[in-house]
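Good day; I would like, with your permission, to put a structural problem before you. I would ask you to consider whether the tokens describe a fold that such a sequence might reasonably adopt. The full record is reproduced below for your convenience:
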Amino acid sequence: MFMQSGLDLNPKELAQRAESLIRHSSNRYLTTVRIAFRAKQRRFDDFDGLLDDSMIKPVQRAIVELSDEQDQPDLLPG
């Protein structure tokens, strides 16, 4: 995955992931809130020094993570 390699995100792919999240959601508002909440969590993780790829903005990282969770639910723990 490109997030771990520290490479820049492709803006077109990021837009496609965001559109996919919205398209597959039953409530666009709740999806937007989930993205914002996840981004806020990642922002604080960056401040704590827990994440190495701080070159990626928290909102971008949140979109990628939620998109991966949507596309590959078998990767989730539990």
About this structure: The helical segments are 2-5, 11-23, 28-47, 58-71.
